[in-house]
Design brief:
Order of helices and strands: HEEHHEHEHEHEHEHEEHHHEEHEEEH
Distance between the termini: 51 Å
Number of strands: 14
Number of helices: 13
Number of domains: 2
CATH superfamily of the largest domain: Type I PLP-dependent aspartate aminotransferase-like (Major domain)
């Protein structure tokens, strides 16, 4: 019987049996019999991996952080391989690639996320296509299906990996669009409460799934027992949280679009809780952040609380417009959020 994503999020990975607990417990075990837990995981890890795998349509592997998951994907590549990444993308991933380049292990090709032809060309020339859609922090959308089709048609098809952190499995399922590996920073929307660090990869390819598990075992990038349990608890409410933040963000995007003080507002067509918008310059964006009272000025995102950050203030994202603000919409009332935004813009609320 086929179930909806909302039902899968609730039922996936649940214990079964007449006397089984309603929830998988925290299993703080360093070893299971004759094996270390880092080799095969614990019940808590496996339950989290089961539900995320169901939602994405593949086999999931949990890591200690999103960067642990990214590193495992890069670990698939031989020395000298070439990786294409968006110029607008998660700074930690770009730093990892730069470090690998400096060591002579990998070569990087940085592409404008809006340049479709450059991505189609790269699909026939590189060893790994790393996609983000929507991108972080500017929220550009990339045609995943067209790029995966070009990759599949190549004489030497590259691995296609998609960071699906912003969209979540509820916004899009990259494996169904032809991707080989999906990555999530479960620290963000999957966990949903700003109280954990955790990463996840998902693939429908058995060989790649084994490679992810092997990489985790070798590197020791294993999730903590409490973090895995918190992420599992978070995913149970992901569908209702995602629907709520999508509705609020869509309404706020309309209001931003009509506001004369806001430039170049971008809200993804697939929905979600992320909005990018620009104020005229760095000074006005910094002043906006300093005047916020309800919305938190913070670097992370995807929690129940709304956060905003001027990403160009960080050296790693100095390429984005100085006045660009990345807004992660939380579960607060839409009118309360808009009131805070208006007063931060210097209007009377």
């Amino acid at each position: 019987m086929s179930h909806s994503a909302r039902t899968k999020a609730i039922t996936g990975g649940r214990p079964s049996g007449e006397h089984a607990p309603a929830n998988v417990p925290i299993v703080p075990a360093s070893h299971l019999g004759l094996e270390y837990a880092r080799e095969d995981g614990t019940e808590t890890w496996r339950a989290l991996e089961a539900v995320i795998g169901e939602l994405e349509g593949g086999e999931a592997t949990a890591f200690a952080s999103g960067m642990g998951a990214v590193s495992a994907v890069f670990d698939l590549l031989p020395a000298g391989a070439e990786v294409a990444v968006p110029t607008d993308s998660y700074a930690g991933m770009r730093d990892l690639l730069q470090h690998a380049e400096a060591k002579g292990r990998l070569r990087g090709r940085r592409l404008d996320p809006a340049d479709s032809q450059a991505w189609l060309t790269a699909a026939a020339e590189v060893d790994l296509l790393w996609l983000e859609s929507p991108t972080n922090p500017s929220l550009y959308e990339i045609a995943i299906d067209a790029i995966t089709a070009a990759a599949a048609a190549s004489d030497k098809p590259p691995i296609v990996a998609v960071d699906n952190t912003f969209a979540t499995p509820l916004g899009q399922q990259p494996l169904a669009l032809g991707a080989d590996v999906v990555m999530h920073s479960a620290t963000k929307l999957i966990g949903g409460h700003s109280d954990l660090l955790l990463g996840i990869t998902v693939t429908a390819n058995e060989g790649l799934a084994k490679a992810m598990r092997d990489s985790r075992m070798r590197s020791g990038a294993t999730p903590g027992a409490l973090e895995a349990w918190l992420a599992l608890r978070g995913v149970r409410t992901l569908p209702v949280r995602y629907a709520a933040v999508s509705a609020t963000a869509a309404e706020l995007a309309k209001r931003f679009d009509d506001h004369t003080a806001v430039n170049h507002m971008r809200y993804p067509a697939l929905g979600g809780g992320m909005i990018a918008f620009e104020l005229p310059d760095a000074a006005s964006a910094d002043a906006f952040c300093s005047r916020l009272q309800l919305i938190r000025h913070a670097t992370s995102l995807g929690g129940v609380e709304s956060t905003v950050e001027r990403r160009a203030a960080r050296p790693s994202d100095s390429h984005v417009p100085a006045g660009l603000l990345r807004f992660s919409v939380g579960l607060e009332d839409v009118d309360d959020l808009w009131q805070d935004i208006r007063q931060a813009l210097g209007e009377e609320a």
